[in-house]
Fold:
Amino acid sequence: MSMNERYEPQSIEPRWQKRWTEAGTFAAGRHPDAEERYVLEMFPYPSGAMHMGHARVYTIGDALARYLRMRGYDVLHPIGFDALGLPAENAAIKDGKHPAVRTRENIVSFREEMKSLGYSFDWEREIVTSDPEYYRWNQWFFLKMLEKGIAYRREGKANWCTGCLTVIANEQVLEDDGERTCERCSSAVVEKSIPEWAFRITAYADSLLAGLGQLTAWPDRVTTMQRNWIGRSEGAEVDFLVAGTAEKIKVFTTRLDTIFGSTYAVLAPEHPLVSKITRPERLAEVRAFTERMRTTEAAARTGEGAPKEGVSTGAEAVNPFSGERIPVWIANFVLAEYGTGAVMSVPAHDQRDFDFARKYGLPIRVVVQPEAGDRLPPGDRLESAVTADGILVDSGPYSGLASAEARRKMGADAKAKGFGGATARWHLRDWGFSRQRYWGTPIPIIYCDEHGAVPVPYDLLPVKLPEQAIITGTGEPPLAKVPEFVNTTCPKCRKPARRETETMDTFVDSAWYYARYLSPRDEKQPFDPVLAKRWLPIDVYVGGPEHAVMHLLYFRFWNRVMKELGLVPVEEPCQRLVTQGIVNGADGRKMSKRWGNVVAPGPMVKRYGADTVRLFMLFAAPPEKDIDWSDEQVDGMHRFLSRVWRIFHAREETFRADPTALARVEGPFLELRRRTHRAIKKVTEGLQDDLKFNTGIAALMELLNELYALEPKTDSERAATREALLALAMLLSPFAPHVAEELWHEVNASAARDLLLADQPWPSFDPSLVAADTVTIAVQVNGKLRGEVKAAAEAGEAEVRGLAEAEDKVRAHMAGKTLRKVVFVPRRLINFVVG
RNA sequence: GGCCCUCUGGCGAAACGGUAAACGCGCUCGACUCAAAAUCGAGUGGGGCAACCCCCCGUCCCGGUUCGAGUCCGGGGAGGGCCACCA
Structure:
């Protein structure tokens, strides 16, 4: 049988895709006794067709999954669709196509494109989150969390997106220069008083923070962002008695050491004490102020540029450390929802307090002096607040202490005396997850006049989304307009009742989908905990860094809840995270219709073949870097694969060479063997440690170049060539699996008819061939390269020195100078230090 | 304002503290061809020089550690990200 001379991916790729599917090559659980690996890429939201970003994530994950399978692991590499969500609904408002229909169509096209790219997914495990059999478990989790008090109904100010016409979570609000916009649709986000459902993620703040410490195989960038987002700040709470009353103002401060410098206290306008403690003569002004604040946007009120404004309540608070009476104000910049909604103001040591004090003529008192340098002038002559730690002054018994020490001591004393103590606060807020939209998971609650909010009993799940959708985008929950959905009976009293018409945030779907893959058709439980014990946590998770503080925080939270429910064995859902860079257009700008620089994977696969597209994704740069699409580079990848194809054709006569002849190989073909084994080492390391696919592929190119340079004439030379070809095919298979499979079968024609390369063990290298026996050693004089000498790899200093000193150039540069030192690095270099 | 990341040929990128620029793209030249494409081969950081002998310069800038720094340390610049009146 003679090979086709031309590389025609279109004719070979579908054939192997079919063979892999028929053989069940990618089914997880094929090797129950083998060690397991779970490789996961973030599942796509199927809006429209697949784009290059998708092609990149799945190619990265797939290369890894294919490699691990060949390494003998039982690999779980599943895929599904994050099908519920706003874009499908917004599109429906535009053109009237039902989200379910649109989503189904998009999934079909995604599935086809993914298959045409040859991804080794275990398609039997595919999940679609809009399937009631999936989202019923969202509801199930919700009920469990309701029982445990993790899910709750709250009343208060929520973020309302004026574009999506729904409440969105804190994490989904983008803030830029005081402008608050929606991360999905970029519309303005305003505050709206609305009751909503929330998850008590703040109860896990400490655990989520502590867990970051174990995530050593996550990019620092992501753990840092999560750390900032969770935003733990250490401090203390202290009670200030309101003079002449029994009321206490509890303040939170991170600078307890400055408390003797506190010259006034400030409450948030919404603080419950405001109405109680305001003096009658101040009432009118305070009410006017509170009312104005109530109707002002948070951004306008507390944004960076907003001027500091406040009014005095006329009341006085008593500093529990000094007994001093200080005035109590209310001001716009104090937030009711952070800390205790009240602060002690220390204008000398806090810039915000300083500005406020200056504006309203409040006293400024220095109580911390710098440890070194000039002493600060009295407060009234300070030009700005001095916020650094230092040594306490005018602070009663604490004077003379360093700030850190003072904080410890004062915190302990406050606790001992019962008026406070050390504590911590978080930036993280609870996760408000109810959405006033249609295309989401219905929240399984029934409102009864008699029994209030009643959870839907477990055996009545799922509460299905009605097919009939009245999607108008007017902000009222669409489900409220579907009487057949709304009207029901109370599970307790059987009297007429109404269903909750809000749906869940789609981040709920993605918070636990990785576990559903374990037993995707399970009808009794969200997934099988026994399987979770085997497969979780995820070994490698690949996805975009834009999810650093949304999905990736939520799923860490959810996994903790699942652990408490006894469903998963570990707290952290994922060992290692790979955040891949963006695929930009050829012009370096983000791909966008606006720039006309969009390139879609589908047409590229048709034109070049999947293997070329995959190779481009992997060769352009390491996974975490952004890359620009480049037609020239893609041509280059295609040229490489064509060259690979042709060298197999040109060396057909070596396919039946006798491997035992390898022992006799010498000269350039021994060098070829060395390169073969070095390539195995290089590619393996690239897949194993750093995911440096690009350098691995470069090693294959070098091997290929060497094959072109050598024409085998003897049996032993043919054997060495065959060895190189075989290695080339195998090493190429995680990256360009189709062409690799085809060529591997060519070399192994008879033996491998019923086998698949995707199932073969990964090649190993011979260490004795990896190490060179002669090496080129750099010769330096005073650290500058002056020549090089060839020597045996094991040559010692004396031998190399002799060779080096014989070099004319080296002699010229050392002439007339005294040799002071010789640095010898075996196999690498020798450096003569002269002077 | 705080925290973090990045900076290397014309371009994408390589480089355990040890010969900077592997590999690919682009470009130049040659072979094949009537010609072109494709393919194969050679060259390709800058400067000096008759010389592809050799010399000098070269990884954003300045300084340091070291026999030796793209890599480590200190300071600065530019670009990017996250957080931010958070007490």
Remarks:
- The mean pLDDT of chain A is 91.
- The two ends of chain A are 70 Å apart (CA to CA).
- The longest helix of chain A spans residues 668-688.
- Chain A is about 35% helix and 20% strand.
